[in-house]
Amino acid sequence: MSGIQAQSSPPASVVRPAPKPTPAPTTAAPAAATDAFQPSKGYTTLQKHVAYFDTNGDGKVTLAETRQGLEDLGLAKPLAYPAALAINGLLGSQTSGHRTFDVSVANIKAGKHPSDTGAIDAEGTFHPEVLDRIFQKYDHDHSGALSQSELDALVADDKVDVKGNLGAKGEFGLLLKLAADRTKVVNGKTEPAISRERLQSFYDGTLFYQLAAKNGHPHPRRD
Asked: What is the pTM of this model?
């Protein structure tokens, strides 16, 4: 599946365990301690994305975990709780099969909605060639970034239902708030924009780990 003013008292860091699947043994040297944690192998890209919020590694993302995760990404406290309520309120029941605010990491693919970009397939796997086509069509000045207006056009073109379209609008709006790293001038107005590299890291499941580490909330390493 768009910064926020810094808070005067930043939230305390939350210790985030790595996702449960254990990667195959490797002889490669460990990454530098200052690097952002990357999720373990064995997860789909969509599972990597949502596992960022699973702070205790139990396979479920609670409302409190989502709220704290959003704050660690830079979302202001007054916005983090309603955003978490919307996210878990929708995805909890869809991924768990019963009424709950807990989101299932393993079954997150059940939370996919119509009117998305198609960059992540039904099994939760990212397809970079879809992102290539998106930039070819919507990056009008070939700057390697998409502005708010260009993302709005993408969402409008992908609309096949009302609920899914609203979800896509919310997702890209939140993404621009948290991760915009460029600006573009559109019809004389400066708009926030997100680079292709950053949008790809969003889809491949690594962006949230990187942003949280940059904000002083890194995941501990566990190979």
From this structure: 0.77
